[in-house]
Amino acid sequence: MQSTYLPGTSLLHRLHPLTKITAAALVILATYLLPWLITPLLIFAALLALAAASGVAGPFLRTALRVLLPITISLFVIQGLLFPPRDAAPLLLGPITLRREGLEFAFLTSTRLLAFTGTLLLLLQTTHPADLVFALTERGLPRSIGYILLVALQIVPDMTARATAILEAQRSRGLETQGGARRVRALVPLVGPLIIGALVDVEERAMALESRAYTDPGPKTSLRQLVDTAVQRVARWAMLLAIVALVAGRVAFLR
Description:
The protein is flat and about 65 Å long. The chain has helices spanning about 10-15, 15-35, 40-55, 55-80, 100-125, 130-140, 145-170, 180-210, 230-255; strands at about 90-95, 95-100. Strands 1-2 form a two-stranded antiparallel sheet. The chain has 2 domains: about 10-135 and about 230-255, no CATH class; about 145-210, no CATH class. It contains 9 helices and 2 strands; from the N terminus they run H-H-H-H-E-E-H-H-H-H-H. By secondary structure, it is mainly alpha-helical. Helix 3 packs parallel to helix 5.
């Protein structure tokens, strides 16, 4: 089973999943509720520093930029050209006229997306999916919803790994995949094994869950043990209070 989790022994890896979830909620709310234009970029810089301290800076930065770079470029182009109103301050870039307000809006939107994506990515890269779901089910989340969440966290990397294995197997048998037209043609023999493999995997999971009496209402035991200290519990309550204060302050500011 594949996942975005990257094993490690850093402090961030060792924190309880609920502590990291609470911190992620606080960071995301701060990204969207604090009024300063530079706030999201500063938050992402702090996330990058945390990723470097946890030993996942390379994968963290590559994944974030791969996902958001096309969106960021399109935002700057579209908002710079089309952002209303018409009397916005123009910025001449050769034959192209961009609008300062549109560029500011594109900058704020793209940096907010960068901070939001970076927060979730760092959470997933430093938290094992099974630990995350186990922590939530310990706090009362139904096991069925926990299983759905676990599958959702693993389905994309799992399907990517399966597709890569199928493509490499077909290449070893002489399938040509170089060039635009050949890559498109290679999708046809890729889809069939990918779908069949996914269906077989679903059946195997269902049989494994049934053999372990997953739907039985009785208590369950787990091989996973999570360490939750008093300091972390106090920190979670402090972050929850900070979330309430942040929301209340934003509401008061808008009024």
